[in-house]
Design goal:
Mean pLDDT: 70
Strand content: under 5%
Largest sheet: none
Number of strands: 0
Structural class: mainly alpha
Number of helices: 4
Oligomer: single chain
Helix content: over 70%
Low-confidence stretches: 17-33, 50-57, 154-158
Distance between the termini: 223 Å
């Protein structure tokens, strides 16, 4: 029956050693106060940290030497970086000043070139004006000369009317050769 099965299952439980382990769990309170487990954990942490410290103290000189060498290398790298940084910064500043000087000179030359260009343009304009004035003066002089050359024919005319054209003069006869004052003997026996 069902009761027989339950009884058969419950028999012999006191003989099982696992029951003692299960029953003895509560006996940890007999070791001390309620903080015993916390103290055990702290003791384990302290012992483990002491073990690490003790293990590290056995290799401290080598580690210190390595750390010191690393620090020295780091400081050397920092010094070199600082030196290079200062050199590069000074070089950049000098190049920037040189570029600023060149820019100023270029700007000055540009302004000077613009002023020179304006002056040259003004001189060219003045020269063109002077040449135009000279050309106009020369044209007036030419007109005056043309009037002077054509003036006598106009002034010879009388107010009553134009003068009669002059008759052509007869051409002059060629003069005969003069006879010599003394006789010339062509057939001179002497």
């Amino acid at each position: 029956s069902l009761n027989d099965v339950v009884e058969s299952d419950t028999q012999g439980k006191d003989d099982d050693p696992r029951d003692d382990t299960f029953n003895n769990v509560g006996t940890l309170s007999d070791l001390g106060d309620d903080n015993t487990l916390d103290n055990i954990d702290k003791a384990d942490e302290i012992s483990s940290s002491n073990a690490v410290i003790l293990g590290s103290t056995s290799t401290t000189p080598i580690q210190l030497q390595m750390h010191q060498q690393s620090l020295n290398d780091l400081w050397q790298i920092m010094d070199e970086y600082f030196v290079h940084h200062v050199e590069i910064t000074s070089e950049i500043q000098s190049q920037q000043k040189a570029l600023e000087g060149r820019y100023d000179s270029i700007q000055y030359q540009r302004r000077f070139g613009q002023e020179a260009h304006l002056q040259l343009a003004a001189r060219v304009d003045n020269n063109q004006i002077q040449q135009q004035e000279r050309i106009s003066k020369l044209e007036k002089q030419v007109e005056n000369l043309a009037r002077l050359l054509s003036g006598p024919s106009i002034s010879a005319e009388s107010p009553a009317g134009p003068s009669k054209p002059q008759e052509p003069q007869e051409p002059q006869k060629p003069q005969e050769p003069q006879k010599p004052l003394y006789p010339i003997f062509v057939n001179n026996p002497r």
